Amino acid sequence: MYRLYYSPGLASLAPHFVLKEIGVAHELMLVDRSLGQHKTADYLALNPNGRIPTFTDGTFVLFESAAICLHLADRHPEARLIAGLGTDARSHQYQWLTFLTNTLQADLWQFFRPEFYVEPERQGAFKTVMGGHVARHLEVIDRHLEGRDWLAGDGPSVADFYLFMLGRWSRHIARPTRTFPRLLRLMERLGERRSILEAFAIERISAPYY
Ligand SMILES: N[C@@H](CCC(=O)N[C@@H](CS)C(=O)NCC(=O)O)C(=O)O
């Protein structure tokens, strides 16, 4: 049985959307950050970074949210959440997913956790700078979406579901996702899907979603 170790609204959200989109049986294991459950020896044995999410399937263990999404897409080709191996569309899906994780998500992380990077008195200014970087990344995506329904390929891929999660997180910056017209259309299109609405309901996340 698949297991997703999650915490509401965090980086486990994208794999949760993907599990729902596939419609495969799975167990959700709540990791309560306020109790430090992500730093216990048992959890660190699964994910040495002490970060959420982690995915298991029997003795198989996988961490990194994007890797979990890709794994599920590969395991369930019938859900068509990734284009065929060796196709241009698949390479572009890799491109966008990588951009999302190592650029947009990385800068969002710094926006949300300035205390890891600068002293308290500089954190306000640091957040403004990081919010600006995030807005520029969203602008790149928004421009790319001109004339396109999805990031790459002819249907929603794991990259789009991942973008939905980060687009939601970006609602806290000065120029949130909803201020980018093409990005907003993508968020609206995805936000109507049953998979996403079910995941939000389970995680007790209510509208507005982004
Ligand atoms: N690159 C990791 C990052 C995961 C991550 O940073 N998760 C956050 C929640 S969104 C977390 O677990 N934070 C734990 C903490 O703040 O100590 C992934 O995408 O899976």
TrEMBL record:
- Protein keywords: Transferase
Q: Which domain of life is it from?
A: Bacteria
Q: Does the keyword NAD apply?
A: no
Q: Which GO terms describe its molecular function?
A: transferase activity
| Keyword field contains Repeat | no
* All residue ranges annotated as the GST C-terminal domain in the record: 86-209
User: For the GST N-terminal domain, which residue ranges apply?
Assistant: 1-80
Q: Which Pfam families match?
A: GST_C_2 (PF13410), GST_N (PF02798)
Membrane spanning segments where?
A: none
What this protein is called in its record is Glutathione S-transferase
